[in-house]
């Protein structure tokens, strides 16, 4: 049974390929190689030009030395006359070199509506990732400050990408890497007397504000040498400094996770840098690379004494003074210090099961969704984390270069590409940056933290929800305000393609008129209200053959085609790592639905009532399924 646009397109492709094989067998000797062009030629035209269109005749014209118009007429005429053509096709016609296809409204609508009303939450699910595991690392914020709005963009992208991959049947491991041994934590340890536990503020905020003051004092006292000594002692994971900074870091991360939970963001496992060092992951990786003859030690030239990636033949690189560290792919410098690349390469070799490292794990925190987040630890027990097929890193565009280098090196090491970098544009604020060191996230009148953003948005939405002419007794105003605030924030960040930069302005962020998240929520609530008034909001609806015959070429069929595109959209968002594709789909469906219930009354007139309430129920389910992928909660009433 045909259920969605993917299968319709596949059938259209097969029909085109079959006819091209018959008519152009002498011109096209390898149809398999040509099949990708056929696939890419299919698009969705304007409604008056059909439901699907192919431009393949323009490519055929070059090979057959005929005009696209003549070829299109020849192929479409044969397809239209074929008695065995698929029953969902009502018409095939050529126009200006294009082959256009019209669907049979009743038959296609029956497929789509019956599928979504029976499959419910499972409708739109794809199987393309079945049997594969993906690790998605986000947001990996240093444990010395609260999440600011830049971190929030990272976290929202990571959360939504995780949901999208799950909707494509991947097994997803949500991972958070915590660098508790970095320079910033050594600086915290140096100035720990400035951290007051008695303060009522959240600990991550307290730590972030102290960190700004500590950095001022470091500059004034020229304390860099002292901090480097602390940093060196921290590398000994049994030292008092390492133990103390781990406690500070864990307390800060738990405070950061309160922010995550307020946005409905959860993790499976946290991997700590101190545990990576304790388990000698880098040594394991370097031993593996040495054993496989992937690395070599330079014996001459500028990088004498350095361990580098060997070339593909295993011979030494030519040594020239012009070569930089990157071109030599240096992993260990001559003083024995590992480069960032080496550490990252080792970590990803563990993620992807190339080297074994039996971390111990213990429970870190029980999350509001009822699931434990586990943490790597000195004690605990082995668990089944890591060993994925793909690793996706949600990291800002500023790290594009080192991420590309990591991917290239990994491919040289393993012969395959299994690391993906979802690069996102930075979030900036008017007149400044979000620097943790300089305290740019603190702001002047309002701080640019994820906590402050949600608090301000909730204040505004509560004012709007409660400022009604008639008192609302049918909704929990606080709960709805919270959901609307989250919808506004999440949609605002996720509707933008990840690679684009975001300039954050408070007036724009709090302008609900320009934000589409609450509007999509409202369309869901509108569908719920219509079904409630129809008396079928808690029941399934049965559609008969006579109902489907009432489908027109109006807003009703436009909605059904949009619902039929759901799986195609879910797969595209997964392939391109773009939650913005889901956001655009939801917005388009909401606008189509608004036109539908304005132009095609649902509850007046018995003749169309059953069909149109069925369409409303399908819209409600479609909105629910897709809003879940961008982590926006629905409300039955608003």
Q: What is the radius of gyration?
A: 29 Å
Give the N-terminus to C-terminus distance in angstroms: 38 Å
Number of helices: 24
Strand order of the largest sheet: 11-12-7-6-5-13-14
Could you say which structural class the secondary elements and strand pairing correspond to? Answer: alpha/beta
Which consecutive residue ranges, at least 5 long each, have pLDDT under 50?
Answer: 314-322
Give average pLDDT, whole number: 90
Task: Report the portion of residues in β strands.
Answer: 5-15%
State the total count of DSSP E strands: 16
Largest beta-sheet characterization: 7 strands, mixed
CATH class division of the domain at 5-103: Alpha Beta
Name the descriptors.
alpha/beta; seven-stranded mixed β-sheet; 24 helices; globular; four-stranded antiparallel β-sheet; Gyrase A, domain 2; 16 strands; 638 residues
Describe this structure in words.
The chain has 638 residues and is an alpha/beta fold. It has a domain at 5-103: Gyrase A, domain 2 (2-Layer Sandwich). Helix content is 51%, strand content 12%. It has helices spanning 5-23, 31-41, 56-64, 68-81, 105-119, 149-167, 183-190, 203-221, 224-234, 240-262, 273-278, 281-291, 325-328, 340-351, 400-414, 450-466, 477-494, 506-509, 517-534, 545-548, 555-564, 566-576, 579-599, 606-629, and strands at residues 42-43, 52-54, 89-95, 98-103, 133-137, 171-178, 269-272, 295-297, 307-309, 330-332, 360-366, 372-377, 390-396, 419-424, 427-429, 502-504. It has a seven-stranded mixed sheet with strand order 11-12-7-6-5-13-14, with helices on both faces. It has a four-stranded antiparallel sheet with strand order 1-2-4-3. The protein has a three-stranded antiparallel sheet with strand order 8-9-10. The chain is globular and about 85 Å long.
């Amino acid at each position: 049974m045909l259920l969605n646009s993917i299968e319709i397109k596949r059938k259209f492709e097969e029909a085109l390929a079959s006819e091209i094989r018959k008519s152009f067998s002498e011109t096209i000797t390898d149809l398999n190689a040509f099949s990708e062009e056929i696939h890419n030629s299919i698009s969705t035209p304007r409604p008056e030009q059909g439901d699907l269109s192919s431009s393949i005749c323009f490519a055929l014209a070059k090979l057959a030395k005929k005009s696209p118009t003549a070829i299109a007429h020849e192929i479409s005429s044969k397809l239209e006359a074929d008695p065995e053509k698929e029953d969902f096709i009502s018409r095939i016609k050529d126009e200006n070199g294009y082959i256009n296809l019209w669907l049979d409204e009743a038959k296609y609508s029956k497929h789509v509506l019956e599928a979504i009303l029976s499959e419910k939450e499972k409708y739109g699910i794809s199987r393309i990732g079945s049997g594969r595991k993906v690790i998605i690392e986000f947001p990996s914020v240093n444990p010395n400050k609260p999440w600011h709005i830049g971190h929030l963009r990272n976290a929202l992208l990571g959360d939504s990408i995780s949901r999208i991959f799950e909707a494509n049947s991947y097994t997803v491991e949500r991972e958070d890497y915590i660098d508790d041994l970095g320079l910033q934590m050594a600086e915290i340890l140096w100035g720990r007397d400035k951290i007051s536990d008695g303060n009522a503020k959240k600990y991550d905020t307290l730590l972030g504000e102290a960190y700004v003051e500590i950095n001022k004092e470091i500059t004034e006292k020229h304390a860099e040498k002292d901090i480097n000594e602390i940093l060196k002692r921290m590398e000994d994971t049994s030292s008092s400094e390492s133990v103390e900074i781990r406690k500070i870091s864990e307390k800060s991360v738990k405070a950061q996770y309160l922010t995550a939970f307020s946005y409905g963001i959860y993790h499976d496992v946290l991997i700590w840098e101190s545990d990576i060092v304790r388990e000698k992951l880098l040594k394991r990786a370097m031993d593996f690379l040495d054993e496989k003859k992937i690395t070599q030690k330079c014996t001459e030239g500028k990088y004498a004494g350095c361990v580098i990636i060997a070339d593909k033949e295993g011979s030494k690189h030519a040594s020239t003074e012009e070569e930089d560290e990157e071109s030599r792919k240096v992993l260990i410098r001559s003083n024995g210090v590992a480069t960032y690349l080496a550490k990252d390469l080792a970590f990803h070799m563990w993620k992807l099961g190339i080297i074994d490292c039996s971390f111990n794990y213990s429970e870190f925190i029980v999350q509001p969704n009822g699931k434990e987040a586990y943490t790597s630890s000195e004690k605990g027990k082995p668990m089944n984390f890591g060993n994925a097929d793909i690793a996706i890193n949600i990291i800002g565009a500023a790290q594009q270069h080192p991420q590309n280098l990591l991917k290239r090196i990994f491919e040289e090491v393993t012969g395959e590409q299994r690391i993906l970098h979802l690069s996102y544009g930075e979030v900036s604020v008017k007149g400044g940056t979000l620097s943790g060191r300089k305290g740019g996230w603190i702001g002047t009148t309002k701080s640019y933290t994820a906590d402050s953003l949600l608090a301000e948005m909730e204040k505004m939405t509560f004012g709007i929800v409660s400022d009604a002419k008639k008192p609302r007794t049918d909704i929990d105003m606080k709960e709805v305000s919270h959901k609307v605030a989250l919808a506004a924030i999440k949609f605002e960040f996720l509707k933008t393609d990840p690679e684009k930069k975001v300039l954050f302005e408070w007036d724009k962020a709090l302008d609900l008129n320009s934000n589409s998240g609450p509007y999509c929520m409202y369309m869901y609530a509108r569908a719920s209200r219509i079904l409630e008034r129809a008396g079928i909001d808690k029941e399934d609806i049965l559609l008969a053959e006579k109902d489907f015959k009432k489908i027109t070429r109006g807003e009703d069929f436009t909605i059904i085609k949009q619902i039929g595109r759901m799986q195609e959209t879910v797969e595209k968002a997964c392939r391109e790592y773009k939650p913005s594709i889901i956001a655009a789909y939801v917005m388009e469906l909401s606008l189509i639905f608004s036109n539908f219930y304005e132009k095609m009354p649902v509850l007046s007139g018995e003749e169309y009532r059953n069909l149109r309430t069925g369409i409303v129920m399908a819209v409600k389910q479609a909105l629910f399924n897709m809003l879940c992928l961008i982590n926006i909660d629905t409300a039955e009433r608003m």
